[in-house]
Amino acid sequence: AMIRGHPVSLGLLLLLIHSAQGHYAQKLLNDLMENYSSALRPVDDTDRALNVTLQVTLSQIKDMDERNQVLIAYLWIRQTWHDAYLKWNKEDYDGLDVIHIPSSLVWRPDLVLYNKADDDFSGPMDTNVRLRYNGEITWDAPAITKSSCVVDVSYFPFDSQECNLTFGSWTYNGNQVDIIMGMDSGDLSDFVENVEWECRGMPATKNVIMYGCCSDPYPDITYTVLLQRRSSFYIFNLLLPCFLISFLAPLGFYLPADSGEKVSLGVTVLLALTVFQLMVAESMPPSESVPLIGKYYIATMTMVTASTSLTIFIMNIHFCGVEAKPVPHWAKVLIIDYMSKICFVYEVGENCASPLPQGPTVTFGPCVFCTHGSGFAGMDTKLVRNVEYIANCFREQRATCAKGAEWKKIAKVMDRFFMWIFFIMVFLMSILIIGKAP
Ligand SMILES: *[C@@H]1O[C@H](CO)[C@@H](O)[C@H](O)[C@H]1NC(C)=O
Ligand SMILES: *[C@@H]1O[C@H](CO)[C@@H](O)[C@H](O)[C@H]1NC(C)=O
Ligand SMILES: *[C@@H]1O[C@H](CO)[C@@H](O)[C@H](O)[C@H]1NC(C)=O
């Protein structure tokens, strides 16, 4: 019976202890709260400061709003202090050394986030506090903070940001409530990685501000959240498309003028770039510092505009036609002789298979029929004159054709020349922007 009864009595004993503790806890709370006021700073000596130890854990970065300059973070805030009136003797309460009670029952330091950017001024959450027999109170409270943060987007999308979270007592000065850093930095051990931002650390500094000449000190603790943007999203969605589109702009020079699409290609490219630029501008604060990517867009758009205008000029040259003046000599020498060799332009239609084999060329002397007088003596002079007229016409037509072809060739050489120039420009600009990335 004894062996069987043993577990039963043990259970009973445990239950007894438990109920005894519950009973003691009740009594303890009644005793503690009998003459306690949560309104007053709980110190024995009112001349001494109450030390509050602050420790902040960054759990998550919920959002970084660049446009409104607000950082939304999920924090766990731990405050520890000693309450001079909430002490008890462990032995009097059956060894009870820790109780958890609602935080609204005890005095709490009024630590607030100074650079709060929230519209609602609700206080911290009413979570429980942990009260030890020696009066030490530990209060853990989760908080979603909206803090203002000066966002500098000049290096977007390769930027890094520093956001300050400043905590201080709202009403007490440093001689009444002193804040002490729990650790040298914010705790990141429970940090949930953010998709856009990488957290590089969270150093803490304590500042003591004296307002006026001889007044009281106001201590605060500033946590600086160091954030580095993960730029791959922006590289793939904003930079790479712009990069590819901008390579189309020089190709506009390569397009044959007779297709009539040269200018519309330039305008289309310009429109596409405008769309991307608007997308960037929408998410950036309207500040004076233009982000790096914005500068790239502007430079690319300037280049495309220049190339389109140049195309229009070159088109004019291309369609000079038969009424035009002959090509000036210097242009012939400079463009047709030298530049065409530099730009590898050989013949007007050279990139469409080999030129057609030329038929036997019939050359007419200035006056075929009239020189050898005797053989054609019987010929009608009228017929001779007519044939001569036809020959002259033919000669003239060939000459104008050649003139038109010369202008066309000049247009082509210039096209090719600017194509290379703009290719090099696009390339250099892209190198420059990538070089700025850290
Ligand atoms: C609370 O105050 C009353 C009256 O001032 C006093 O009689 C009583 O002993 C006090 N209780 C405790 C626990 O200090
Ligand atoms: C608060 O801390 C300072 C030193 O950091 C110490 O001198 C002071 O006595 C502490 N105050 C209390 C009430 O313990
Ligand atoms: C953030 O806090 C640090 C430390 O107090 C200070 O040096 C820095 O200037 C602050 N930055 C901003 C933007 O206020």
Strand order of the largest sheet: 3-5-6-2-1-8
CATH domain fold name of the largest domain: Acetylcholine Binding Protein, Chain: A
The proportion of strand residues reads 15-25%
Attached small molecules: 2-acetamido-2-deoxy-beta-D-glucopyranose
- The CATH homologous superfamily name of the largest domain equals Neurotransmitter-gated ion-channel ligand-binding domain
Organism: Haplochromis burtoni
Protein name: Cholinergic receptor nicotinic alpha 9 subunit
Main location: membrane
Keywords: Cell membrane, Disulfide bond, Glycoprotein, Ion channel, Ion transport, Ligand-gated ion channel, Membrane, Postsynaptic cell membrane, Receptor, Signal, Synapse, Transmembrane, Transmembrane helix, Transport
Describe this structure in words.
By secondary structure, the chain is α+β, with helices and mostly antiparallel strands. It has 2 domains: 195 residues, Distorted Sandwich (Acetylcholine Binding Protein, Chain: A), CATH 2.70.170; 167 residues. Helices cover 40% and strands 22% of the residues. A 6-stranded mixed sheet has the order 3-5-6-2-1-8, with no helix packed on it. Helix 2 packs parallel to helix 4 and helix 3 runs antiparallel to helix 4. One 2-acetamido-2-deoxy-beta-D-glucopyranose (NAG) binds next to strand 1. Belongs to the ligand-gated ion channel (TC 1.A.9) family. Acetylcholine receptor (TC 1.A.9.1) subfamily.
